[in-house]
Every structure is written in C-alpha cells, then in structure tokens.
C-alpha cells in the first residue's frame, strides 16, 4: 500500500477534523497531516508551489471558499495533474457525486462518516 507523505484536510467541522486526524495518525500510511478551515489558504500554498500534498481530503460545504469553488480554482493551476482530491461530504445527493466527477483532480467521492476501511480504499487509489 502506498504512503501519503503529506495529506491536507480541508473542512470547517472541528469535531470531524479531530476524529479524522486521529484515524489518520493511527494509520502508518499517512505520514504528515495538515488541516485547513477552507480552501483559500490551500490555494495560496498551491499557487506559490511551496508544497504539494499527496492527498487532499475536501469537504464541500465550507465558508469563504467552499469545496466547489476550490475545485474550480484548482482546475486553473498548471500543475493540477499532481493533485489527488477526495471529496468528503455528508451529502448523498447523486447530483453532488456526479458534479465531483467533472473535475479532473477528483479521484473519488467519499461519504461521511469516514472509517479506517474507507481510508485504506482511498490509499489503494493513489
């Protein structure tokens, strides 16, 4: 199974982020994890080419820059092919799942809650 040296969590739900980070820390295949409350700070990092995560775990509903806005801006980056985004949402709306497939950086849509099995499945897609 491939290791994710750097993983970004972009989600404004503090409790969900806390639990997800604990799950990731228990899994030896996730080395370093950083979390962000919205996509704006991550876009700044990516636009400056200062670092590139192996995985971005992205929520859809957030303040400032939501998941859809983040994905649209991500599509404009010249180095977007390096990125692997996994949309995480409590929404099971088929329209959201289908919309996520429109973005080349999105590798999969994962419904919350997240468990160890879903994380292992995610790693298998790297």
Automatic annotation (TrEMBL):
InterPro entries, alphabetized: CheY-like_superfamily, Sig_transdc_resp-reg_receiver, ST_Response_Regulator
Signal peptide stretch: none
Gene3D superfamilies given in the database record: 3.40.50.2300
Highest taxon, organism lineage: Bacteria
Response regulatory domain sequence ranges: 6-126
Keyword annotations from UniProtKB, A to Z: Phosphoprotein
Transmembrane segments: none
Coiled coil: none
Modified residues (4-aspartylphosphate): 59
GO biological process terms on file: phosphorelay signal transduction system
PANTHER family per UniProt: TWO-COMPONENT RESPONSE REGULATOR, TWO-COMPONENT RESPONSE REGULATOR ARR22
Descriptive protein name: Response regulator receiver domain-containing protein
Organism of this sequence: Flavobacterium terrae
